[in-house]
Amino acid sequence: MDRLTAVEHALRAAMPNALLDIVTVALMEHYGAVRVELRLADYSMRSLQAVETVPFSTEPVLIHNSPQGRAFGAQEPHVVPDPDGHAVTVHFPVTIRGDRMGVLSVTLPEDRFVQTLIPEMQHICDVLGHEILVAERDTDQYVLARRAARLTLAAEMQWQLLPGRACSRPEFSLGGHLEPAYSIFGDNFDWSASADHLTLTVTNGMGEGIQAALLTNLAVNAMRNARRAGLGLADQARLADQAVYAQYHGTAHVSVLLLRFDLATGEVQAVDAGSPRLWRLRGNHVDAMSLDAQLPLGMFEDTPYECEYFQVQPGDRLLIGSDGVYDTPSSAGEKYGERALARALTATRLLPPPQVPGAVLRELAAYRGETPLDDDALVVCLDWNGRP
Fold first, then answer.
1. Residue 353's closest CA among 174, 170, 140?
2. Is the peptide bond before 180 cis (omega within 30 degrees of 0)?
3. C-alpha angle 75-159-220 in degrees, rounded to nearest 5
4. Residue 17: exposed, middle, or buried by beta-carbon count in 10 A (0-12, 13-18, 19+)?
5. Model confidence over 96-111: pLDDT tens digits?
6. Which H or E element spans position 214?
7. Is the pTM of this model over 0.90?
8. Which element (helix H / strand E) includes 246?
9. Are the C-beta atoms of 385 and 172 separated by less than 8 Å?
């Protein structure tokens, strides 16, 4: 058995809470590593938090302007020779299907480091990412490592509802983010990809706190239930509408944008039932996609919903923003609006989709200035590549 296979087997046999211990021992034994550190990105995507037995024992590292952050942002290994010249530290991105989880830092004696080790050790990091994803079913260790602060209960409910923060396949790449990360209310996004289709939904539940989180959880799970039963997009909206109305009798509603992409042709079905809005960057032009506005879910009993259609082309970038983005006022009271969003979409055109939501929300924070964010702000970005 070669050393790469030995490390893989050790990780797959490890207890869920012992992945870092196992990978550390394996890297020391098979590669001569003298130090191994695993850091995961926090919910706000601003810092990398150490995975350790006692949470918060080690100071976080900022993603911006740090060696670990460089590997995380570029999604490439970053080699840093130690000043004393006796060791080399390599920071490896830990990513699973496009979802950027964190960074594994491995320090090797200078005489044990060769460039040909990097692809092999990156593969180990990919295996580690898969195992962390599976282990989160049975342990809180990695979830705790993502927290730079305590989450509100509403935020806990919303983050647990998400499928992830990014997803990548040959046909598309997408990423999404929520702010304020540690106290979100009713905004959410969801996706599911099959062999032939991608379904993407962006949701904005009315209200604040637990009530908003409960409302959004009901709507998202109703849409998932309908999707998994094989129902079409319009029927998914109808079933969720009925579920919300049955529970709240019209006193609460959920705004939602539902999109279903045909992975082979680029045809998109859409149901626009509320406030999330869609923009498209095609070439050098940004356009607000005009969709037929239908009633938010849960306002009335048995509301009919209809699909409309549009086409995406390879190279298109789509951006979805909640009303907490485009309605955010500046200190002078002027709303962020479509013009500023168009500028932000153009300015971030060279960034990969998982980085775009955070960049737009940082620009939104600068625009807002000292004015506090009084609503959730959600951004989802999708690049369409088309089927090879």
1. 174
2. yes
3. 115
4. middle
5. 999 999 999 999 999 9
6. helix 209-228
7. yes
8. helix 233-248
9. yes
